[in-house]
Amino acid sequence: MRAILAGGGTGGHVIPALAIAQELQKRYGAEVLFIGTARGIENRLVPAAGFALRLVEVGALKNVSLVTRAKTMFDLPRAVWEARRILSEFRPNVVIGVGGYASGPAMLAAILKKIPTLAFEPNLVPGFANRLVARRVSAAAVHFAETARFFRRAEVTGVPVRRAFFDIAGPVPSGNPTLLVFGGSQGAHAINKVVMESVAALRDRLPQLHIVHQTGERDYNDAAAAYAGLGDSIEVFKFIDDMPGFFGRADLLLCRSGASTVAEVTAAGKPAIFVPFPRAADDHQKRNAEALERAGAAVMLEESRLNSGTLVEAVASLLSDRARLERMGEAARKLSHPHAASDIASMAATLAGATGQAL
């Protein structure tokens, strides 16, 4: 079996794609090739994971200037042609689009060559690349049931996340309440700023509160200065490598609501306050957060409403109600998908005609 995974740009696209690729290798002995662009994070993560990577040249169409959009439209036919040439050389049995810049051209090329295609869509509202091919792909693997309506044939598989998140054991035993704040590997400046401004008020409302704050590189020095003198009641990090371990210690999470974060939150069964990134394409982070809020698993606090007053009230009211936190955690866990990578790999194998080749 030969499979291409196309797309990338951010960790939210690339990390699940790597999990799918590893599952294809493990279960089907698949030969896997990635297609990405020169500026995406796939250039670092894909080779590090031991997979081959080919590049096409294509830019963004969403949330960019008219000049950039025009250039991308001009480059798109060439990108499709480049992708078609890669497909002709590699001769895949299936092409899996994971969203991001390279996904659209590669999936269009596969459709033109009549190669089976599988779209992976982790957000509630599909990104531009997946919307472009939604009605023409062979099948789709989605995270939210509501997303299935965009595709001809879709299955709810969830988003692959590290097994360690599923191994987190239930609510934190009663003790000092712990708030974990993070905004992705680069941090989230708006969240960081308000948390720094709110520390005194949070400690007034919750004197025993312990805060763990991953700031990212840019805001680390300011946060360290703001927390100076507060002793070990606050831990501040540029980056956290063992995120599942810190999830396990937390009673409540304060974070963005990208697809991978949402999947990790549900896998861990943790209650969360989501602050969606307001400039995300198609406002997909807000849609993701709304879906968990409707299920009773999270609270959404939009960035336009984020200030010291609203943050302190949201955190204090939740951490003062342990029964509600437990209900939210249980609701989150019900939305998790522990077999996502395996299910997506099975769909790809079926499309490729390789179901009898499982190892």
Helix and strand arrangement:
Blueprint: E1 2-6, H1 11-28, E2 31-36, H2 42-48, E3 52-55, H3 66-90, E4 94-97, H4 103-112, E5 117-121, H5 128-133, E6 139-142, E7 154-156, H6 163-166, E8 178-181, H7 189-205, E9 210-214, H8 220-226, E10 234-237, H9 243-249, E11 252-255, H10 259-268, E12 272-274, H11 284-294, E13 298-300, H12 308-319, H13 322-334, H14 340-352
Parallel strand pairs: 1-2, 1-4, 2-3, 4-5, 5-6, 6-7, 8-9, 8-11, 9-10, 11-12, 12-13
Helix pairs in contact: 1-14, 3-4, 7-12, 10-13
Would you write up a description of this structure?
This protein has 359 residues and is of the alpha/beta class. The chain folds into two domains: 2-159 and 338-357, Rossmann fold, CATH 3.40.50.2000; 164-334, Rossmann fold (3-Layer(aba) Sandwich), CATH 3.40.50.2000. 45% of the residues lie in helices and 15% in strands. A seven-stranded parallel β-sheet has the order 3-2-1-4-5-6-7, with helices on both faces. A six-stranded parallel β-sheet has the order 10-9-8-11-12-13, sandwiched between helices. Helix 1 crosses helix 14 and helix 7 packs across helix 12 (308-319). The radius of gyration is 21 Å and the shape is elongated. The protein starts with a strand and ends in a 7-residue tail after the last helix.
